[in-house]
Amino acid sequence: MKSDAYDDLDRALVHALQLDGRAPFSRIAEVLGVSDQTVARRYTRLRTTGAIRVLGLVDPSAVGEVMWMVRVRCLPDAALAVAEALARRQDTSWVSMMSNGTEVVAMARAESGWDSDQLLLGKLPRTPRVVGVSAHCVLHEFFGGPKGLVTKSGSLTAEQAALLSPPAVEPPATEPREPLGADDRKLLEVLARDGRAPLAELAAATGWSQSTVRRRLAALRADGTLYFDVDYGRAVFGQGITTALWLSVPPSELHATGQALADHPEVAFACATTGPNNLFATVVCRDVPALYAYLTTRVAALPAVRHMETSPTIRKIKGPGPLLASPHNPPRRTP
Known about the structure:
The protein has helices spanning 8-19, 25-32, 36-48, 79-87, 113-117, 119-123, 158-164, 182-193, 199-206, 210-222, 251-262, 288-299, and strands at residues 52-58, 66-74, 92-98, 103-110, 130-143, 226-232, 241-248, 267-273, 279-285, 307-318.
């Protein structure tokens, strides 16, 4: 759908869902000043047309997982097959083909040090058409997760956002989080596909009562294990170009520069990583002139940046949630 198919109410609804993916339609409607039925209709249209997906996701740091950014260089005729093979894995997210047509970038989760050692061997398809691989450990996240780019859109006023925001997350200060059980994982699997899955569906998946599901959801959200994100089409907010930005910054300036970068309205994700380029960001702009303006103003104003590499995304294969089967995207044989 074109960007003019969406209006301010659509964008306000998406912003509200980014703040609280399971907020009742009645509460959203009250804050936005419309009827419950209007919110329900708008959400149904956005969801059924594929414009948005509300996802319940696990914070990797809350369960002891390590995040890696993997860059795969391959022959031009292999890029799509390699990207789709990575996207089909349950432990990957944000799989994209980059502008040169010979590189695939993905985020991958590893549960332990041993998994990290096996990262490249276990996650990449075995093919001679992959000509180079690099993996960079995510050391610190400056912006991302529940703090999606939508929260910078201004679609809600500050007062509306405050009314719709859930209580602040309070991770355990001294005691470790309660380990996830088998039923917890069943719960989270359903939420990863549909963050607004009804309590009855969650109860059926876990074998719990609906009251138990409600309590467990509240506990997982309160300690930061579970958060909600909205995966949306670029047209909803009139976004035209997504670009990966790799920066090199002296260690003494890394944290301050990362925080400054995270405040930019164009930055959807920012983190510190290992490697020669130790600061990464995903930047979203309306068009190429807007990207040029961003690079030559906001980025240029960061005094500690010593080197910059940019690469626009030409195709997103997978977002933050699981890859859904589609008749228009049939499974491909792993190369």
